[in-house]
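Below is the data:
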Amino acid sequence: LLVNLEISKQDESYQWVLAWLSLHRPQTGLLAGNLTRIHDLSMRTASKTLPGGGSQTSFLLQPGYGRHIIRYGGAYISVQRERQQSANMATGEPFETVTLTTLYASRNIFEDIFREAYDLAKKAQEGKTIIYSAMGMGWQQFGDPRRKRPLSSVILDKGVKETVVADVKDFLGSQKWYVDRGIPYRRGYLLYGPPGSGKSSFIQALAGELDFGVAIINLSERGMTDDKLIHLLTKLPQRTILLLEDADAAFVNRRQIDADGYGGGTVTFSGLLNAL
């Protein structure tokens, strides 16, 4: 009997497993328990813009589409990576799946695979901050994780950084207090100032200090509505600081009417309060 395990591209573990499958592990013999090397590969390219105006590109080899046979932990595993004809209506990307198949008696090997894949992903993110951006009705990682920014690199008025960090850490350790009293467990901060005064920099430094990610929503973005905002908040990744940029767009529509008749974002002040 065989057992199949299907992983969708929409699942966070999809990229973890692909990266794990791409690892180079030398064989020590015909019956070695190491991961057999995959020879049919595909390329995943990621580019990001650097603060100085340049760009940086990274290349990651992944198992190609089709069927592969690997041997791991004494078990033979069939790996089938498929790209489907249908696509995500929000992003336009085709749906993809990876299916692992092995003997039913060896099904427990999947736990070891996922544990190694998760540990590999965590190690790659050590000392870095993950940035998420809203894509359609969900979240997508924006580029590669960025190196954590130290708090000392952000210059604010004396005592401001220390006060906020202490307050956040106190809040993170007080969930039971909120739950016992029926108070919504949430915390918000309003950062204000002209462009370049350090608002976004402080948020990234705070996320690095707490080992959190940062999820960004621009309230003046074309197509952003009250319903979409609330939906995105319900799908927010774990251990993530939500950054709402251009929050004042909910008070007044600052965008002029475009040539195509579009008049800007439709997030209302009432919708913002309900979302928060």
